[in-house]
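Anyone else keep sequences and structure tokens together like this?

Example one:
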Amino acid sequence: MNLLLQGDDLNLITTRAVVCPFVKKPALFSRNLARREFHQFPNLCAMKEKAEIQGDEVEAYCQHLDMLYQDFSVGYEDVLGMEVPSWEELMELQTNDELKVKFKNCYQAFWMQRRIAESYPSLWSVVSSTVMDLLTKKRNRLQIATRGDLRLRLTNMNPNVSKLVSPRQSHSSH
């Protein structure tokens, strides 16, 4: 975790993505130890095979892991409690030049990348359902990246139709 939280490209979203799994691991390890599943601990696994581990030792390890989980939860509560709005994800996505090129080349492959789903989960879920809706059998040739259909579907802005048509002259019917 220490190495992942270093460097110039670090931001709050990346920090949260690194810290959350780190904090949750002791709780998972404790549950597994309580069930006598030692696969995360090779030394304990070897001791189990030789019958060198006692039940009270396992309980002590579980308690220690539970305390670690509580300490980590308190120590990182600001990062864990941080809610990343989708507009931050969108802003980060818009400023990533590498991903812009991939999006322009093939939007379907772009949204199907595991990296996108993991880095921008809320934005990805909204976009993927919208893309699936746009890409029906009737519209399979739709160029949603170039025509702006996707952008129009994802915006929460409503057009001011009156203002848009006011400079136009109305034509009487023939």
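And example two:
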Amino acid sequence: MTIPNRPLIGLIKAMFEIKGTIHHISEVEYKGQKQFAVRLFVLKNEGQYTDYYPFELTGDKTSLADGFEVGQEVQVNFHVRGREWQGRWFTSLSPFKIEGLKGEAPSGSRDEPPIDNVIYEAETQGDDEVPF
């Protein structure tokens, strides 16, 4: 299977799932000249050691965190993304589905289709701006 003028190899992204407690949800911020929407939420996962996972919601996905609250237990399905900018490397966790656990169904619970076969292209921005 191919996408016009592009082979499928390298386009499929691995999907991951994690359960934990919401530790932080930021407001939507608008970055860069194009005012690209970005929202951060942090998931706390307790085991032998407590881990914190910062998830980056971008564009129309910023609404996935609506209706959830700090302290709420959730399951997050996400992709791991990486990019290079001016010789520096960045990794981000990009959710496509968030759902409450223990019978919780917040009004903001969303189930977006996974984006397995999407090619992300970097936006052209000035040299002084981080691309996210």
